[in-house]
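seq:
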Amino acid sequence: QLNTKHEVAVKPAIAADTGGEESLNGKNWEGLIEYIRKTRPLLASIMEHGSGAITDQNTVKIFFHPKDVYFREQLQARAYVEQLSLLTKEYFCHAVRIQIDMKPIGESIAEKRDRERGVQKMAATEAAHNHPLMLEAKALFGGEIGPTKIISKNPAESGGANGSNGSNDAND
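struct:
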């Protein structure tokens, strides 16, 4: 059931804008997302773009940044409302009231993951460029290193299987 304030009547709670540090009975926002991911990965992916806050024993607020209105609208779809209500009740072992709203938030789980992947990619590229063999080749041939493509040992991380066995990974 959705009212004009974008609330879902369901009833424990979630941790907050603080990166999931707040909890209710040892259960927090990140834990809820991981719990939901086991059975409803798309719903969990939508929730990763928001931030959860526990306001009291029976209320959980989910905030989306104003630029992420699409995710709020998705989460308010009837099918997702019902799934979220059921899974939240299962996770916290009692019903909670869920409010979905817009407000500027800090870094979401999805943004944090994307930022960390970017940092890892830059570190791998730098490690490849500074590898002793690369430095020796540059000195020997007097050239420069062109664009570097990092190939993951995990095909899912590199965009799929492309016949590579991962031997071009910067860590090898």
